[in-house]
Amino acid sequence: MDTDSSADFGVDPGESTDHRFGALQQLLLRTEEIDDEALVAAALEQQNQLVQVRLGVASSLFTALKAKHPPTAAHSLRVATSISTWAAVRGNSHSERDELEVAALLHDVGKLAVPDYLLAKPGKLNDEELALMDEHHAAGVEIIEHCCSDAGIMAVIRHAGAWFDGSKRAFPLCGDDIPRGARMLAIVDAFDSMITDQVYRRARSKDRALAELFAYAGSQFDPELVSDFCTFQMRFSNKLQHDVAQQWLRDLSPDQSNSHWDHIIPQRIDRPNQLLNLFHENLFRNVHDGLIYVGADLKILRWNHATETLTGLSAESVLNRNWSPKLVGMGDSSGRFLPEREDPLAASIQSGLQSVLRLTIRDAQGEYSAITAHISPVITEDGIGRGATLQLCDASGIQRLEEQLRSLHVKATRDPLTSLANRSELDRALNEMVRKHSGSNRPCSLIICDLDFFKRINDNYGHQAGDDALVSFASHLKRHALPGDIAARYGGEEFVLVCGHCDMKTAAQRAEAIRQEVASTAQPSLGGKNLNASFGVTELQEGDTPESMLNRADRALLQAKELGRNMVIQLGSGRDAPEKRERRNWWSALFAHRSPDALVERTMTTRAPLKMVWEKLRGFLTDHVAEVVDTSEQQLTLAFDGDTFGITRRNSDRGAALVMSIRPREQQDERGMTSTVIEVSVAPRRSRDRRRSDALQRARQLMASLQSYLMVHDFSEGVVGAEKEAPTLWDRVAAKFKKPPTDDRR
Fold first, then answer.
1. Which run of H or of E encompasses 54?
2. Does the chain have fewer CB atoms within 10 Å around its N or its C terminus?
3. pLDDT tens digits, residue range 475-524?
């Protein structure tokens, strides 16, 4: 390494950094750290001068990069002055330094093609984002090679990302085959990135950055150049880098800066209107869509080649003729021919409005094809109408695709025999209905129905008669389904009608109307006999899931069958006004006993007798598919698997399993009225389950559902306490010494 070359700049290798030069260096290259607005303005002006004298006409590329991402532009300028200083100390020739300086200024220009959110992302990039970021090098090479005629500069930029051991597959060269300038640029680029604050990490110290370079010497970087660069960093101050920047301003001329770039001098165009007309003519002739232009008097003035292909009519046969929808057999989307009074072109000329229509026209084979017609009026700057254009886009392929999609949707969501929604579509629609109505407090009911003694129909009259009976019953459901309802075949001879915006009383009346209509309709396939059906009706109530609502309606249907069939049975409490929470004194909650593992605890009061409470609990555990873990006269313990809830975000989610302890007892008030008090707590089934927030949501839902089943008229912060997350030991200790709230009204 030739250290004497530093004499060209008047630098003493042992000289300490002068304060004036250090401040100016910061002024030139680190404006983001300066608070003085005047200094920042001066620094920005100095930066602009450096870039302009170094890049010449190509400075616009750097300006574009600066507008896109200022930190990247500032990094490129620092790398350019640093690598120029290092090259001067090494004794590189002036031509080599020119190549290095220009390549360093533009080596990151490919980040113009990187999305803004990637450049500004503070966290770690994922694999897809890393691959997208890696494409910026190829984009930069493509941008620069369109204007750069210097092979040396292009070689440095093209191979700057290569690894010395050749392990980076996007770059074919390795070792000394990589241009020396590219190897130098890779080292300086990495070093400046490490010692500068980035949006995704803080700056590293200079010593730490040099250690990183040594760690990757031989793999990513040239080991000899790494050693030389580290010696340069330790021996030379920032004053030398400032002198290099000043030499740019002093020695470089515009001719020298522009010598690297291709100059394309456009020929003078004496007749711009002719060129514009030529462009329009070429565009009109070669566009793939059919284009027709008619004047204000509806004379056909233009008819391009695509229109000839589409309609089978040549331009010579139609030009200067009056336009008419009959000329191309134009009709609406249903195929009805358009009369003259409904001509969309004439309407556009009169109204001055654009329109997009789905139409049909007669094609070259004499058949009628679907098209999308874009109709636009032609209006001059002074507001005078000059006609209209008609763009014809062949939509036959789109129409076929739409028909196929509709057919596939019907097959995927409809029962092929009855044309009602199938089980899959019912599950989706019921989930959506419950989700919407749970948060809005609007009523929603469900009717499940089953044909009585259907097996006898198949046994006595054959399966075809059974199919006819199913189709007939489905027709009754369709007739009574209102807009917004979902009528579905649940399976076999069972059907479901989900009634949106309908309470249980109204739903039961509708079910009774269907039952009577079915019972009074003679079935030809059954020899004139009638069908009978049983119905179970329920309404969405607090804490319901689609599964619990369907299970409750199914229990009502089973009761209808047990009671003799051919009837309508209702189950469920529906929705009442929000319960009133009893207020208790602060010391009642302070000394309340709480289970340390409980997620939710409540004391509920219902006017139902204890015997009825146990009956309601039996329905609750059946509808929620609960497992009885322990039972006694005083307590019932139920376990709920994570799959029995309907509030998962994805089908693959599995919720936390829960355990509910229920302790009912009868009590009498001062008036002698008997009521039932139920102490309830819900806890995770596994004490170390980490899905606590999910478990808490499920526990609240279970608690609300239990209140609905037990017809609770009040719940309070009693001995067990109202809904609350279980406190820690420290919370319980701190609560003992908490002062009672003061009353300002005293």
1. helix 37-55
2. C
3. 999 999 998 899 999 989 999 999 988 899 999 999 999 999 999 999 99
Please, what sign has the CA dihedral across residues 514, 516, 520, 525? positive
First to last CA, the chain: 89
User: Which is catalytic among the residues 101, 493, 547, 679?
Assistant: 493
Q: Is the model more confident about 724 or about 481?
A: 481
| Nearest C-alpha neighbor of 495 from the set 428, 434, 550, 438 | 550
Burial, 549: exposed, middle or buried (Cβ in 10 Å; 0-12, 13-18, 19+)? buried
Which backbone phi and psi does 429 adopt, to 5 degrees? -65, -40
In what helix (H) or strand (E) does residue 660 lie, and over which residues does it extend? strand 658-668
DSSP reduced 3-state for 198: strand
**Closest among 735, 536, 702 to 621, alpha carbons compared:** 702
Amino acid at the residue 303? W
In 3D, which of 592, 586, 579 has the Cα closest to residue 703? 579
Encode pLDDT of 684-696 as tens digits. Answer: 887 665 556 678 8
Whether 493 is catalytic is yes
Q: Indicate the average pLDDT of the chain.
A: 78
DSSP state of 279: H
pTM of the model: 0.47
Neighbours of 651 (CB within 10 A): 5
State pLDDT tens for residues 597-637: 788 899 988 888 888 888 888 899 898 889 888 887 788 99
Tokens of 182: 């590219």
